[in-house]
Amino acid sequence: MILEEDPEKEEALERIGFWIEYTGRVEEGITLHQDIIERFPFNAQAWFNLGCAFKEIKLYEKAIDAFEYALAIRDDFSYAHHNIADAFIKLRKYDKAIEILKECLSSETGDSSLYEALGYCYEKEKKYRKARSFYRKAFSLSPEDDHLYFRIGHTYMLEGAYKLAVPFISTSCKIDTHKLEYRLALGECYVQLDQPEEAVNHFLQAVELRPSSKRSRLALVGLLYQMENWKDALLQLDIAEEETRFSADYNYYRCAILLRYGKEKEALLQLEIALSEAPNKINLLKKLDPDLLLHDSIIRVLKQFDE
Predict the structure, then answer these.
(1) How many domains does the chain have?
(2) Is 229 helix (H, G, I), strand (E, B) or coil?
(3) Residue 139 and residue 150: Cα distance in Å, rounded?
(4) What would the pLDDT profile of 1-34 be if each residue is shown by its tens digit?
């Protein structure tokens, strides 16, 4: 109602931009701001709100255009700069995002979010050392930000330096004890460091954190399989099937375990169920144990489903 009376009311524009995103009334917001821009084409806030609305529905190219109009009108509109960088990140155009983020740093005091965004872009470009340098700058400003410790640890994981990753990811786990992603990453580090008992401990904690998580369940079962602990692997599968939604992934894993257990007939039955439900997930067997796809019985069943 305020904007109907005064479409250029700055405070009203700022607030409605927030509430459009909060309530999800994005299409209505786009129409509103396009109407304001048609009458008042040099309203920077209206262009900015339009860009945010486009970004919300993943029309990133249109969002960038709108933010650039806002900047052309008001060159000190820092939020527009930040959102352009974020849109380029969403488009996976990391080099362009880096360019914008560095412009932001040259024109304003750097905050942790800018440094983190730069670190993320360099991480995606596989420039892990450079990524860590920006993540470190970010947590020097926000030393209690658990996510920054995790990101540094994750870059070490991507380099295969799991021993170096452990202390950073452990720190992120201590700061926030409820993040599933951290606990699974720590478990994976210990798997790669050939410390399976420690890995089992972290995967069990991941399961406790989110009992409904299929990813946690499969990580635990997969590790027990690698440890040749068939009995516990089957037990954890039973629990997973009771406590989470049905998934053909479980049938593939059960097939593998039963086959190694010497229960070939039951294993092939599980494979048939899995193939009938999700034939595109056959690579789960290869990921779990590449030798399974060389097994005569497995080959025979796969041929039957191909016919």
Answers:
(1) 1
(2) coil
(3) 11
(4) 888 888 888 889 989 988 998 998 999 999 999 9
Q: In the predicted model, is pLDDT for residue 46 greater than 70?
A: yes
* Cα distance between residue 96 and residue 85, in whole Å: 7
| pTM of the shown model | 0.87
Which of 153, 161, 162 has its CA nearest to residue 195?
Answer: 162
Tokens encoding 6: 């005064």
The reply to whether 191 falls in a domain is no
26 lies in which domain range? 1-75
State the angle between helix axes of 180-192 and 196-209 in degrees (0 to 180), rounded to the nearest 10: 170
Angle CA(163)–CA(166)–CA(168) in degrees, nearest 5?
125
Q: What's the token pair of residue 276?
A: 């009938």
Q: Which tens digit of pLDDT belongs to each residue from 271-283? A: 999 999 999 999 9
- The Cα–Cα gap between 268 and 295 comes to 11
CATH code for the domain in which residue 64 is found? 1.25.40.10
User: Taking every pair of C-alpha atoms in the chain, what is the biggest distance, in angstroms?
Assistant: 78
Q: Find all residues with CB under 8 Å of 164, minimum gap 6, and list them.
A: 156
Long-range contact pairs involving 176-181 (C-beta distance under 8 Å, separation at least 24)? 176/146, 178/209, 179/146, 179/150, 179/209, 180/206, 180/209, 180/210, 180/213, 180/215, 180/216, 181/150
Distance CA 189, CA 287 (A): 17
